[in-house]
Amino acid sequence: MKYAFSTLGLPGTPVARSAALAAEHGYEGLELRAHTEEPLHPDTPGGERVAARRTLAAAGVTVLGVAGYVEVAASGDDGPVLAALRSLVRLAADLEAPYVRVFPGGGGLPEADADAHAVRRLRAAAPYAEGHGVRLLLETHDSHPTGAAAARVLDRVGQAGAGALWDVLHTWLAGEQPGESWRDLAPHLGYVQVKDVASAQDLTPLTLGAGVLPLDEVTAHVPSGGWLCWEYEKRWYPGAEELPGQLTRGREHLVRLSRDRSAPAGRSAGSPGEPGGAPPRPP
Fold it and tell me: How much is the average pLDDT of 182-191?
C-alpha cells in the first residue's frame, strides 16, 4: 500500500512543514486542501506553485490529490461549476497531482435532477482533466454518500477523466457495508480516504484504530499498491488532538491492516456503538 494524509488535519500549515511531517512519518503523499485558508488553492500564483512543487519533490513527497469544494450535482448554471473544475485541474497539473476531489452537493434536489447535473458536468469536464493528466474524483459525500449513489453517476459519465473517491465514513454512516461499497466503486476508484470516529453520534476525529469504523474490512478490499489517505478533520473539530503526534501510530495501524489482506469471517453490521459495526440501514 501507499499512504498519504490530508492537510485538512493541519489547518493553515505551510507546505514545507506538511511535506516534512509526511517524510518524517513515512507517508509517500499528501492530499492538499485547496481552499483560500490554505497555502495552495486555485488563485495561488504560478511562481508559488512551482516553489511548492520543488519543496515537495525535495522531501520525496508527492501530491496525491487536490481536495476542492466544487459541487457538481448542485443546482445553478453549469458555467461557474465548469470554470471552477478547470481551475482545480490546472492547479493539480501544476503540482503534478493525479486527482482532484469534487463533492456532489445535490442536497434538496430530486435524485434524478442531482444525478443529471453531476453527469452533465463531469462529462463536460472529464476530457479537459484527462488532457492535463488529471482525474476528477466524485467523493462519497452529502447527497451521494454511498458507493451505489456515486457509481450511479459515474456509470453514466463513462469517461476515464472521472472517477470515485471512497470516503469510508460516509458510506458507513449511510449503512453501506464495505463489500457493497467496493463492489460499486472498484471500476471507478481513484483512492480511499480512511478515518476513525467514536460513533455515528460523535464524529470527532480519532487516531486510526481507536474508533468504530470497519477499517479492516475496507483495507481487505483495496488492492496492493493502492493509496490509503488519512483524512483527519482537525479543521472542523479544533478541539481534537493534534495530528502530528498521531501520524506514526496511524500509519502503523494501516500497515498492520494491509498485511492482513483477508476480511474477518462472519463480520456483519452491528449497532453504531459496536467496534466495526455500521449504523442500521435507513428505511
Answer: 98
